[in-house]
Design a protein that fits this description.
Pathway: Cofactor biosynthesis; thiamine diphosphate biosynthesis; thiamine phosphate from 4-amino-2-methyl-5-diphosphomethylpyrimidine and 4-methyl-5-(2-phosphoethyl)-thiazole: step 1/1
Cofactor: Mg(2+)
Protein name: Thiamine-phosphate synthase
Number of helices: 9
Family: Belongs to the thiamine-phosphate synthase family.
Bound molecules: 4-methyl-5-hydroxyethylthiazole phosphate, magnesium ion
Largest sheet: 8 strands, parallel, barrel
Structural class: alpha/beta
Oligomer: single chain
Strand order of the largest sheet: 1-2-3-4-5-6-7-8
CATH architecture: Alpha-Beta Barrel
Shape: globular
GO molecular function: thiamine-phosphate diphosphorylase activity
């Protein structure tokens, strides 16, 4: 993967989208507007299952492919292999990084980390990038750890300048600048895009905030 792909990483599942909206349309608007990576994260109370889950994943994959944006699957290594996704993202409660790496070969592997020890394990097992967060309070992940602020981002980036890092959790226009200032490669967002009244404007604003700090 290119580290620029992390600049504006959009994550979405059915539960993240307001009831009057169609998830696939939000993804298409976000792709048209210029998101740089997409993660399929089908979790929570209204999550699809079975065939509907897989069909929705395939639809999202097709759209991402059309816009040349990497398509990453959250947690579900089997689905990622079956679909030939561009990559997988796992957290600390999923399968071990070493096992995921063996199973997916050279697909992109992203790992959520919260401390230096987890970071080092991810690096040792050839994670392609790490996600750090929640940086700020978030209502999109019910089992999120307490917000950690930007200091660990700064530390991780200075200790491992070669490692692609994306920040996640509660990131919006007001606080994105403080995140980009740490030198990380990008921001991952759910609600900022899923709940946006103007996805074009939202995407363009995040991308210009990123450029200001380059
Ligand atoms: N992991 C840590 S925070 C989070 C995930 C998946 C949710 C981010 O969503 P939002 O709406 O951008 O705060
Ligand atoms: Mg997970």
């Amino acid at each position: 993967m290119k580290r620029e792909d992390l600049e504006l990483y959009f994550i979405m599942g059915t539960s993240n989208v307001p009831p009057q909206e169609q998830p696939i349309y939000i993804l298409e608007k976000a792709l048209q507007a210029g998101i740089t990576m997409f993660q399929f994260r089908e979790k929570g109370p209204h999550a699809l299952t079975g065939l509907a889950y897989e069909q929705f994943a395939r639809q999202c994959q097709k759209l991402c492919h059309h816009y040349h944006v990497p398509f990453i699957i959250n947690d579900d290594v089997d689905l990622a292999i079956r679909l030939g996704a561009d990559g997988v993202h796992i957290g600390q409660d999923d399968l071990p990084v070493s096992v995921a790496r063996k199973r997916i070969g050279d697909m992109i592997l992203g790992v959520s980390v919260h401390c230096e020890e987890e970071l080092q394990i991810a690096i040792n097992h050839q994670a392609d990038y790490v996600g750090i967060g929640p940086i700020f309070p978030t209502s999109s992940k019910s089992d999120a750890q307490p917000p950690c602020g930007t200091s660990f981002l700064q530390e991780a980036h200075s200790l491992h300048p070669e490692l692609p890092i994306v920040a996640i959790g509660g990131i919006n226009f007001t606080n994105a600048h403080s995140v980009f200032q740490t030198g990380v490669d990008g921001v991952a967002v759910i609600s900022a895009i899923c709940q946006s009244k103007d996805v074009d404007h939202t995407v363009a604003t995040f991308r210009s905030l990123s450029r200001i700090n380059k």
